[in-house]
Structures are given as C-alpha cells and as structure tokens.
Amino acid sequence: MVLRLRKNVIITPTEYGAVALDERSGDYYQLNSTAALILDQLTKKIPVESIAARIALDFEVSKAQASADLDEYLRMLREQGLLR
C-alpha cells in the first residue's frame, strides 16, 4: 500500500531529523530521524511494507515491531490530517 502526504505539507531536513509544516493549518511538527525517514519514503511513493522493512533493518528491530510502530505513526499522521 502506498500512502501520500497532502500537497500542503512541506518537509525541511534539519540536523536532528526534519520539520514538517502544514501550510493549511500553519502547524509545525518537529520530526526525529525515524519520522523524517518515514516521511521521506512516503514522498518517494515507497510502499508501507517496504518502509517497515527499512526501519527494521536500519534500527535493528523486528519486522513485526517496525510494522506496529509504523502503523501507529501513520495513524497519528491521519489524525493530524497530513495524509491523503
């Protein structure tokens, strides 16, 4: 499954991850390196399953844990209205 950020969400890399700006609401979100990786992968239209596999590999966690954590983060993005 491929998810996309809304067009009004702008991501800017920082030293510690990234900052996301929702131009529609004016809200800013400070992103750690994991969240920045997830949003970067979403902007590249990478499937959710592949993002979970990358998280598992990069952060040395089980694929099940990576999938669960990713699902939780995506749920939060939906609640904030950042995904379309």
Helix content: 40-55%
- Give the tally of structural domains: 1
Outline the low-pLDDT stretches: none
Q: How big a fraction of the residues is strand?
A: 15-25%
Distance between the termini: 13 Å
Q: Might you state the CATH topology name?
A: Arc Repressor Mutant, subunit A
Order of helices and strands: EEEHHH
The main sheet comes to:
3 strands, antiparallel
Organism: Rhodococcus jostii
InterPro entries: PQQD, PqqD_sf
Protein name: Lariatin biosynthetic protein
Describe, in short, the structure shown.
The chain has one domain: Orthogonal Bundle (Arc Repressor Mutant, subunit A).
Provide a descriptive summary of the structure in words.
- The chain is globular.
- It has one domain (9-80): Arc Repressor Mutant, subunit A.
- A hairpin with a 4-residue loop joins strand 2 and strand 3.
- It contains 3 helices and 3 strands, in the order E-E-E-H-H-H.
- The longest helix has 17 residues, at 63-79.
- It has helices at residues 33-43, 48-59, 63-79, and strands at 9-14, 17-22, 27-31.
- The protein has a 3-stranded antiparallel sheet, with helices on one face.
- The mean pLDDT is 95.
- The protein is an alpha+beta fold and 84 residues long.
- It comes from Rhodococcus jostii.
- This is Lariatin biosynthetic protein.
- It holds the Pfam family PqqD.
SSE layout:
Elements: E1 9-14, E2 17-22, E3 27-31, H1 33-43, H2 48-59, H3 63-79
Antiparallel strand pairs: 1-2, 2-3
Helix pairs in contact: 2-3
